[in-house]
Write a structure and sequence with these properties.
With 409 residues, the chain is α/β, with parallel strands linked by helices. It has one domain (5-31, 46-394). It is 17% helix and 32% strand. It has eight helices and 24 strands. The chain has helices at 13-25, 58-61, 76-83, 151-155, 172-180, 228-241, 310-321, 376-380, and strands spanning 52-54, 67-72, 92-99, 102-109, 118-121, 123-136, 142-145, 163-165, 168-170, 190-193, 197-198, 202-206, 211-216, 222-227, 249-255, 257-260, 270-282, 285-296, 328-333, 341-344, 361-363, 366-368, 373-374, 393-394. The strands form eight sheets. Strands 2, 6, 7, 11, 12, 15, 17 and 18 form an eight-stranded mixed sheet that branches. Helix 1 crosses helix 6 (228-241) and helix 5 packs across helix 7 (310-321). The longest helix has 14 residues, at 228-241. It is globular, with a radius of gyration of 21 Å.
Length: 409
């Protein structure tokens, strides 16, 4: 693959060689750690540090808040092919709505709700660990933050497992989609993620100056602020090395990793993003790869109920409603009164900074915190007659009770 996330194109062959070496000595089986020999040279630290003690609420008290990103790096020609319904990618369907005399086309993952039936999207999961050259853990070992300890928990989460919602027993993102088209869908209509195929786990070596690491003084949770540009550039390299499929949803999973430009806490914390880019032609049609990065979050690190799979559920639903990053809507302002103005169809962003942005879903005696979503009529400002109970948000139907408010761009 030649294109990168957010347009970063890497030709750093030393980085590629190092990652290939790491991949070659990592076992493919999920949840297994890479041998210490893979980073033995980096483990010989000079003046290593320990995670910085941080009181509960440390991030929020310094102005940090949950942030999420979306972008596409499609050429103008491929974006036009999306509008003409002439691309090869994940299964998708098209629709339009009118507002203020203008027609807005949109593309969603799955099949047309009125057609009914079940669409199953193949899923690929890549566990990404970060090895911090400048920090030691509580045992005096070089610090490694990775998703291996929580990987099975993620696979058992509402993103992949069935739970009960007002729209039926199903996966979380599908429950939201069914709420969105409840009055017009075929009753057997579903858009489901298949159990993930586990690809090569990867370790990123984080050099001195590219991260700040903290330890919650109450829970003991260790988390890291990582330089955004550094992480994205390395993720671009990993994308080129993994065997990603354009008809599948690849998910890059980290644990307790937050992105911040230049490690600025006030601009923290990006917890996930989704993107799309071209991977070459497929016959006469451009082939478009979509993907997600999201971080697991230990409870108590972010506050306001943001925990565990909040970022992953946020990004899956937004990917399902705007897979190619091309869906534009009338410009809207954040219901939280933050002054944020957007014109894209991002269904979780409007409620991301609200105190009750998440809901609780219990599976196997563990309480998950997936992200509430706004529904399509919130963006269109039309009568929500197609949604369940005329709702504008879901699963918490009382969270948002009036359509989006316009703002100037």
């Amino acid at each position: 693959m030649s294109a990168g996330i957010f347009g970063v194109h890497l030709l750093d062959f030393s980085t590629i060689s190092r990652l290939r070496r790491i991949l070659s000595c990592c076992v493919i089986a999920a949840g297994m750690a890479c041998p210490g020999a893979c980073w033995a040279q980096s483990a010989a630290l000079e003046n290593p540090g320990v995670p910085i003690p941080a009181e509960p609420g440390f991030l929020q008290n310094r102005g940090a808040q949950p942030r999420f990103e979306a972008a596409n790096k499609l050429t103008a020609e491929t974006a036009a092919a999306v509008r003409r319904q002439q691309i090869t990618s994940v299964p998708h369907f098209y629709g339009t709505f009118a507002s203020a005399g203008k027609t807005f086309p949109f593309t969603l993952v799955g099949a047309n709700p009125q057609a009914g039936g079940t669409t199953r999207i193949p899923t690929q999961l890549i566990a990404v660990s970060l090895f911090f050259e400048d920090f030691l853990d509580e045992k005096g070992e070089p610090l490694l933050l990775g998703p291996s300890p929580i990987l099975q928990r993620v696979l058992n989460s509402p993103n992949f497992r069935i739970a009960s919602y007002a729209t039926g027993d199903t996966q979380f993102a599908d429950a939201v989609q069914r709420a969105q088209f409840f009055r017009i869908m075929g009753q057997d209509w579903h858009t489901l993620l298949a159990p993930p195929e586990l690809l090569h786990p990867v370790v990123i070596e984080v050099p001195r100056g590219m991260a700040k690491v903290f330890r919650n003084t109450t829970t003991g949770a260790v988390y890291a602020l990582v330089n955004t540009a550094f992480f994205v550039s390395h993720l671009n390299t990993i994308v080129q090395l993994e065997d990603l499929h354009s008809d599948a949803l690849p998910i890059f999973l980290t644990s307790n990793i937050f992105l911040a430009p230049d490690l600025d806490v006030k601009r923290c914390c990006v917890l996930g993003f989704h993107t799309a880019f071209e991977t070459g032609p497929s016959g006469k049609s451009p082939q478009v790869q979509t993907l997600i990065w999201a971080s697991w979050i230990d409870e108590g690190v972010m506050g306001n109920g943001v925990a565990d799979v909040t970022p992953l559920s946020h990004e899956i639903s937004e990917w399902m409603n705007n897979p190619f990053g091309t869906n534009l809507v009338p410009a809207w302002q954040s219901p939280a009164g933050t002054g944020v103005c957007q014109d894209n169809l991002e269904t979780a962003d409007p409620v991301a900074t609200l105190p009750n942005a998440t809901v609780q879903v219990n599976i196997d005696d563990f309480t998950f915190h997936p992200h509430n979503q706004v529904l399509l009529p919130w963006f269109t400002r039309q009568n929500p007659s197609d949604t369940i109970d005329g709702a504008l948000s879901f699963p918490d139907q009382g969270l948002i009770t009036r359509p989006s408010q316009p703002c100037s761009r």
